[in-house]
Amino acid sequence: MSESASEPQEALRLSVLDLIPVRTGQSTPQALQASLQLAQTADALGFHRYWVAEHHNTAGVASTTPPVILGLIGSVTNRIRLGSGGVMLLNHQPLVVAEQFTLLAHAFPGRVDLGIGRAPGTDPVTSFVLRAGSDQRQQVAEYPQRVTELLELLAGQFSFELADGRLYPVAASPTLPARPPVVWLLGSSEYSARLAAELGVHYVFAHHFSGGDATGIVDRYRSAYCGTDQPRTFITANVLIADSDEQAQQLALPQLIGMARLHTQGGTGPQLTVEQAARAELTDEQRGLVERMRSRWVIGTAESVAERLRATATHFGVDEIMVHPIGGARESEPLTENAARTGTLQQLAEVFALK
After folding, report:
1. Distance (Å) of CA 162 to CA 47, 56, 150, 157, 168
2. For position 7, what pLDDT does the model report?
3. 217 φ, ψ to 5°?
4. pLDDT at 321
5. Which residues does the chain have with pLDDT short of 70?
6. Do residues 263 and 235 lie in contact, with contact meaning Cβ atoms separated by under 8 Å?
């Protein structure tokens, strides 16, 4: 499955990944409203895709059900592609995912991506609840078969073998959409890249999460690709733009501290405000994590960020980068808005001349 050849080809496409962050004092409806406004901004500015993640039982993240959120975003946008970054397939039956995204493809023709991940997107206990106590190791081993089943369902080619050997056809929709969802496998290691190459589907390296150099992984995906069309890949990056480097670092600190606490404490509360982050007390380990992440994330003025993104695209040989806008909010900001995330997209659109 590939995107339409009629889609515009740009020197460097920019897309958006949104986790729908929830900050201190903010309700889920307010966080959702802020993200819907951000999606409308991305749509109007010329960004290529808008993807939402799947996380569960996380106080600082409201993005729990990508297909529901994508339906909401699709209803308030006009042209931007809608996608999951990603659906954690081991949490769901392939038929359910195929039904959801086929319906989205009917509702928003030619605009739907289905990004698939293997991670649980949550803590071990919540994962156990999501998967009804199923053996996790067995589910992981079954992941390639689940992906294959999902691909067959999306193509209208899946049948279930009955005990007597007869094949019983199962359809995700009474009719297939004229332009079905475009499938991408997501990963932060070589496993998903290898599977994507074997199955002939597109691949995204979660560079914003891994932080490592994925050049070899991306190259091996391309060289091993078995699809009938051309292999396609892009990478993600944590990005924040402000008027000065000092301001950018202040706005990035809430997300940096949140990630450091997640790694060291196994969980975190709502995202800190900029003022709370400035007062936060960190352990030596957390401070070290903050500094290491700070050096890898793309934080600064519009010109410096644009230079790093172009260099990153050249380094990995990609023509698209999906930015995860990480800006924190100040306590004085309306709870239904996030000026730093919106400003990052506005300045990116200007410096890259997206329109």
Report:
1. 46, 35, 19, 16, 7
2. 37
3. -65, -45
4. 97
5. 1-10, 136, 209-213
6. no
Q: Residue 257: which of 285, 228, 218 has the closest Cα?
A: 285
Q: Determine the 3-state secondary structure of 227 from DSSP.
A: coil
Write the pLDDT tens digit of every residue in 279-305. 999 999 999 999 999 999 999 999 999
What's the whole-model pTM score? 0.93
Measured distance CA(182)–CA(31) in Å, rounded: 28
DSSP secondary structure letters along 45-93: HT-SEEEE----S-TTB----HHHHHHHHHHH-SSSEEEES-EEGGGS-
Residue 7 has phi, psi (to 5 degrees) of: -65, 145
Give CA–CA dist 94/202, Å, rounded: 18
Amino acid (one-letter) located at 194: R
Three-class secondary structure of residue 312 per DSSP: helix
- SS3 per-residue string spanning 149-205: HHHHHHCCCCEEECCCCCEEECCCCCCCCCCCCEEEEEECCHHHHHHHHHHCCEEEE
Cα four-point dihedral sign 89, 123, 197, 116: positive
Given this model, what pLDDT does residue 211 score?
Answer: 57
Instruction: Provide the β-strand partners of residue 300.
Output: 241
The 3-state DSSP class for residue 206 equals coil
pLDDT given at position 210: 56
| Cα–Cα distance, 223 to 273 (Å, whole number) | 45
Write the CB contacts of 47 (distance below 8 Å, at least 6 apart in sequence): 14, 15, 16, 80, 345, 349, 354
pLDDT of residue 213: 64
- Domains of the chain plus CATH, in order, are 13-351 (3.20.20.30)
210: buried, middle or exposed (CB in 10 Å: 19+, 13-18, 0-12)? middle
Per-residue pLDDT tens for 167-224? 999 999 999 999 999 999 999 888 999 999 999 999 999 877 655 567 789 999 999 9
